[in-house]
Amino acid sequence: MKNNIDAFLDLVKERNGHEPEFLQAVEEVAETVIPYIVKHDIYYGKNILLRMVEPERLISFRISWVDDQGEIQVNRGYRVQMNSAIGPYKGGLRFHPTVNASILKFLAFEQVFKNSLTTLPMGGGKGGSDFDPKGKSDNEIMRFCHAFMSELFRHIGPNTDVPAGDIGVGGREIGFLFGMYKKLRNEFTGVLTGKGMSWGGSLIRPEATGYGTVYFAEKMLSTKGDDLKSKSVVVSGSGNVAQFAVEKSLQLGAKVLTMSDSSGYIYDADGINTEKLAHVMELKNVKRARIGEYIKKYPNAEFVKGKTPWEVKCDIALPCATQNELNEGDANTLLSNGCICVSEGANMPSTKDAITAFHKAKILFAPGKASNAGGVATSGLEMTQNSLRFNWTREEVDDKLKDIMSNIHDSCIEYGKEEDGYIDYVKGANIAGFVKVADAMLAQGIV
Length: 447
Ligand code: NDP
Ligand code: 2IT
Known about the structure:
Blueprint: H1 2-15, H2 20-39, H3 48-52, E1 57-66, E2 72-83, E3 89-95, H4 101-117, E4 124-129, H5 138-152, E5 161-164, H6 171-185, H7 205-222, E6 232-236, H8 240-251, E7 255-261, E8 264-267, H9 274-286, H10 294-297, E9 302-305, E10 316-319, H11 328-336, E11 341-343, H12 352-360, E12 364-366, H13 368-371, H14 374-388, H15 394-416, H16 425-444
Parallel strand pairs: 3-4, 3-5, 6-7, 6-10, 10-11, 11-12
Antiparallel strand pairs: 1-2, 2-4, 7-8, 8-9
Helix pairs in contact: 1-2, 2-4, 2-16, 4-16, 5-6, 7-8, 7-14, 7-15, 8-9, 11-12, 14-15, 15-16
Bound molecules: NADPH dihydro-nicotinamide-adenine-dinucleotide phosphate (NDP) and (2Z)-2-iminopentanedioic acid (2IT).
């Protein structure tokens, strides 16, 4: 078995040697999926995984725009169209200075499995730019988004590729992107998700990733006869996913101790309650300020500069910021502090060694492609509502989201339950996600 996995990874490394994040994501999938392929004749010997690691299309383009000082700026834009076997490419856009082909290929690859797990008909894609939104005016953001869409529009469409938000791309950016797409195509379609409520958006889409991450944690805890009530929760990030992970944790009776951004974390021993969360939302979404500002209003809390929150003792950890933000040392600290459950809101926030440590300790651990799938699932529900030209109520969408998260949990158990009863959610998510896409690829032949 090891030979099969090594031979496959050597080939992928040869072709993608300078893409560490992409290789990390592929390795995690290969280690769990190749043993499954070897045991199942219908998949064996057909190079399916080799086909899946090669993007169907990778588009890279120049974005020129003019800043408020009248200077011409140049950024690089991308769209990775990874796999369309089960539906149009679907996945977010990330605007962050670290964006490159490796990051977007890892995200697009993960997205293929995640979207498959949702049970909705969505292929996988991801895109974005190395543009840094920090410190930019609203007008600069608008000009950049318009310039970005003036190229991207020719590659996407409601039946081809449907982008959404990710780091640095929220409701404001989706609005500007949608406006330019509509102008260029002269069509009002559901080409993007995460739209505003008055122009085709879905209720619960802003909340969905964070809520879904907590619903998944709740499902994992229920396998132990446990729940979130009175549990202490440590959250990283303070953006879209983190904010609604905190909101849902509070609704389910947990005590939330931390939030963070790239400058450090705030630790509030009294708990971040609903009122304090509203203040974080105002700071991050309206004032676009740093998380450290929190202690100005709540001086009992402390701001720990330049660090991640994993050193804070907790029952449950929800990493909701970015990839590789939780390493082996952090995992060991969480474990020695008694952490029993980790549900990833971000994409690939735990390093490979951190996941190994969680698995060795046999705690509840959910990989992002399962636990954060509520965001894209609700994007799928937004697409359905757009096609129907109809809007479901908050309760209707939230019930569907809960059902989807519960189904994903069931799929993880189906493919990930070990002989001793331990649920390997990584293995479960990878194999369940793989099977549906692989079956579709086989049915469609070698294309
Ligand atoms: P936002 O841009 O709203 O927030 C990102 C948060 O993460 C900010 O607090 C940001 O801090 C922090 N962050 C970003 N990069 C780093 C870094 N290098 N080091 C430390 N902190 C960092 O993005 P989202 O909340 O939408 O996304 C968060 C994660 O969730 C990402 O991994 C994304 O891929 C994933 N995700 C998002 C979904 C969605 O629907 N939005 C769906 C599924 C997954 P700062 O402001 O300082 O940069
Ligand atoms: O990583 C993700 O799943 C997202 N950023 C959401 C993608 C989407 O199409 O809603």
